Amino acid sequence: MADNTAVSQTEVSRQDVLSLRRSPLAERAAELDAAGGSRVRLREVPFRTQISLRAEPGGPAADGLEKVLGAPLPRKVGQVSEVEAPVTGYVLWFGPDDFLLVAGDEAERELSCSALAGILAEAVGEHRGQAVDLSGNRTVLELTGPNAVDVLCRMVEVDVHPDFFPVGSAILTLVAGSSAALWRTDEDSYWIMPRASFADHTANWLLDAMREFADRP
After folding, report:
1. Partners of 129 in the β-ladder
2. Region of residue 49 (left: phi > 0; alpha: psi -120 to 50; beta: else)
3. For 125, left (φ over 0), alpha (ψ -120 to 50), or beta?
4. Contact 159, 165 (CB under 8 A)
5. Residue 209 binned pLDDT confidence (cut-offs 50, 70, 90)
6. Which of 2, 46, 48, 166 has a CA between 20 and 30 Å from the CA of residue 196?
7. Long-range contacts for 13-18 (Cβ within 8 Å, ≥24 apart)?
8. Whole-number Cα distances in Å, 45 to 55, 105, 107, 158
9. How many CB atoms lie within 10 A of CB 139?
10. What Gene3D superfamilies would the database entry show (predicted)?
11. What is the mean pLDDT of the chain?
């Protein structure tokens, strides 16, 4: 009985802690929503699980990660792979040995971000690589709509034309002059992932660039 009570108290405590979280743009949700229209929309997607994975492609650390994830890592820089274990999510490949696992909010599952990072670190083992929980490092700004790409063109130095940046592409780049991950999640949908401390800065630039495409009365 004592053991069951301890487990229950731990679970309640974790949910209580998670309920106290505040995303970087929580107080601007209404502002972001009001700026959107039929041509382009912006919202924050907070509290995404983000686990940094470092492993040499084809090496033993990568092999261990693939066994745990139940799917191969991306085979080319800029590509994205879908995984289903230990959580449902996506792995983005940013550089030679630099991957990022992105999944849903840990409040919606039993496995915490730190526990997930621990499982993946065990998969790396003593080989060269690592798995680190960076979930609080970045937030997500979702830009959608037929003119989303036009807004991005005013903020990035890379070519985001569909011919060069198709659906399922993800890169690290500068967005509004600050470092951010950029992921094209659908035909007219992009995830912009700035560091939490630059969330307001990035949102301000996006809102300014969106004005040109606002619905007219």
Report:
1. 55
2. beta
3. left
4. yes
5. very high
6. 166
7. 14/112, 15/107, 18/106, 18/107
8. 28, 10, 14, 23
9. 25
10. Heterotetrameric sarcosine oxidase, Probable tRNA modification gtpase trme, domain 1
11. 93
**Residue 14 is which amino acid?**
R
DSSP string, 7-54: HHHHHHHHHHHHHT---TTGGGHHHHHHH--SS-EEEE----EEEEEE
Residues with Cβ < 8 Å from 139, sequence gap 6 or more? 23, 24, 25, 44, 45, 46, 48, 193, 194, 196, 199
How many residues are recorded in the chain?
217
**For residue 86, which amino acid is it?**
P
Could you tell me the two tokens for 9?
A: 């108290």
pLDDT category at 216 given cuts 50, 70, 90 is confident
Q: What structural domains does the chain harbor?
A: 26-46+137-211 (3.30.1360.120), 48-133 (3.30.70.1520)
